[in-house]
């Protein structure tokens, strides 16, 4: 009988122990959260599947957990339980919940209008802050990273006159249609769970494995790829780090074959001040960033080189008047710009990044030590303030290997065990994120709780 992802064996842990923990922790959650249970039942009357956005069902809990408030790196639910928050809104609150400068900016802007479809005094200041932080001279604002990626793909097709975008198997670039492909036994296929897709995505998208420069070059030789859209490290199929020389080799191949390079830093902004791009001196044609850039207010940006700006102007002139398909009414609204100004200048600072990176090392090395103590063949990877422990002995080098290492049933059990003891991590695999507000005590609590979880799994 072929094993599914849920039933696949886990190195160092008995399947019966996972099942027993999951049942035990679900029972504990049911008893401890009567208010969340009541609200979840009431919500079913008018919300599809009981939630306003279906991702809220992706947690390990038997019913949705209802939050009451969050400050810094602590979240409190409606039943009064406090959590050390290492999810941080799945990166949306990466710099902490309600940073004081952003709260002040919201308060200031709320009294003078939220959106005008006009520029404000913040515009030149934010442009300079973005350029100084990330190294690209020209910028545009959108509302989500999905929008930013979608708009940049359209620009790349317009300036190159080429039809295709190239992505990595296992990538994540929001809800951009062109990116919902993966490799299945070496062949492109729609990603699992994709709904409502009516046209063949392979007509406009090429997909290769991460860290495979030979496959990348074979794809680029056809001469029809407008752009490569990639994260500098894969972060949504577990964590896949670039091998030495891979990103530089990618940039060289893109230049050789006339293909534009887009670096999506929406997750890897955790790497350090200026993101992975600045920390590793990457030279993309375009750069996209969403989620945390305005401190939790929906906002995204994309930056580009002077050469791209000139090519974009020529493409606009050729297209003539009309709607470009790029931009939305609420993009670059006054509230976004004012919050982004506060966040970029007062929150996303080198000093705050140093705090986050130091604690991330403490977390990663601490979890590694707990794993070693119990002789479990797992490992830990981190990209700056983002860390993950993976239930496999070796680090994956591409999306296929990362997918093979996933153990959904174990992840459900671990997540619920941590949550029931006041530790909240991302609902997707075993990802953690640290903010400027995170404390050493919170990190040590997570590390100790992971150790306790392993003890129970090993003892069964």
From TrEMBL:
Q: Which GO terms describe its molecular function?
A: transaminase activity
What does this protein need as cofactor?
Answer: pyridoxal 5'-phosphate
What are the record keywords, sorted? Aminotransferase, Pyridoxal phosphate, Transferase
Q: Where is the signal peptide?
A: none
Keyword check for Transferase: yes
User: Which family is it part of?
Assistant: Belongs to the class-III pyridoxal-phosphate-dependent aminotransferase family.
Q: By its UniProt entry, which NCBIfam families does this protein fall under?
A: PRK07046.1 (NF005453)
Its recorded name reads Aspartate aminotransferase family protein
